[in-house]
Write the C-alpha cells for this entry.
Amino acid sequence: MSTLALSTRRVTGLSRTNALLMMRNRLTLTYAVVMPLLPLLLLFNGERGDVDAGAAAISTGLLMALMFPIYYNLLSMFVTRRDELVLKRLRTGEVTDRDLVVSMAAPGVAITVVVTVLTIVVAMVTGLPFPLNPVLLLVSVLIGCLAFVALALWTASWTRTAEAAQLTSLPVVLIATLGLFGPFFPESAQRWVSLLPSAAVDDLVRITWFGRPGELGSSEQFGFLTTWGEALPALGVLVAWTVLSVWLAKRSMHWEPRS
C-alpha cells in the first residue's frame, strides 16, 4: 500500500475519532454549530431582501463559523492534547505532524462548510438571492479555513494551558471581528482595517454573493466573471494571513509541554 494511502487512512481514522469526541462534548458542539447560525436570525427581523443587512448577517455568521469550530476548537484541542502528552505519543508512531494537524482541523472545517450551505438556505428563505458566484464563495470559505487553522496553531505555540486559551485567543478574536466595522472607522484608518481577515471575509461575501463592492449602500453591480477579479485583493489578504501564521507557527510550535 502506498504512503499516500496509509496517510489517508490515518487521517480519516483520526478525523472520525476527533469528530466523535466533539459530538460527545455538548458545550463544544453548541459553540461550533449553534453560535455561527445565531446571526442569521437577524435576516428574519430586517427588511426582506436588504442587501447590506443580509451581507452583514452572513459575514458575521461565516466569521463565527471560522472562529468557533475551527480556531477556538483547534486551539483548545491542540493545547489540551499537548499537555496530556497525547501528541507526543502519537508522533512516536507512524502518524506524521501533517496527519495530526489535518485530522484535528477536519471536523471544524466540515462544520464550517455545512454552516455555509445552511446559510445559503436560510438566506434564500428570507428573500436574499442565491450567491452570484457559489464556487468562488466556497473557495473563499476554504481559504478562510486555512487561515484560521494556521492562526490557531500559532496561538497554541504561546498558550501554556487550555484554560489560558480564553485569554491568549483574545487578540485573534479582536482581529477577527474588528474588520466587520471597517466602514465605521475614519477614512484614514479604513485602509489598515481592510487588511484584517474579518474585513476580507466581509468583502468576499458582498462580492461573491451579491456582486457588490465592500462599501455600504453601493448600488454598483458586478457580473459573474467580474467577481473573480474583484475578489483577488480580499483573497490575497486571507492568503497573506495564512502564510504569515504558518510561518510563525512553524518557528514557535512545540508538541509537548515546556518545562
Notes: The chain has one domain: 3-252. The mean pLDDT is 85. The chain has 13 helices and no strands. Residues 51-83 form the longest helix (33 residues).
